[in-house]
Design a protein that fits this description.
With 85 residues, this protein is an all-alpha fold. It has helices spanning 2-49, 65-68.
Length: 85
């Protein structure tokens, strides 16, 4: 009877260890797949938002009627004061 009990306990412990090992390996595979999918999605998102070569203009203001007037020839005058060190 004791021998039978030890065999049952040993088989139960062995099965528990095997189940734990397989569950850990399957969870690790699942985590790896999810991580790879997230990285692939992030790469695709970054490639979609990369600016092309050259100048990237996000906003072009509308031309106002004041700026379209050509009252001042040679450009606008900016008053400045030279500062010496």
């Amino acid at each position: 009877m004791i021998k039978f009990l030890f065999i049952i306990l040993g088989v139960g412990w062995l099965l528990g260890q095997l189940v734990r090992y397989f569950l850990r390996s399957k969870l690790a595979q699942l985590a790896r797949r999810v991580n790879e999918a997230a990285m692939e999605q992030q790469r695709a998102q970054q490639q979609a938002h990369q600016p092309k070569d050259g100048v990237n203009v996000d906003f072009i203001p509308k031309k106002s009627p004041q700026k379209m007037k050509k009252d001042i020839e040679g450009g606008e005058y900016v008053d400045y004061e030279e500062v010496k060190d």
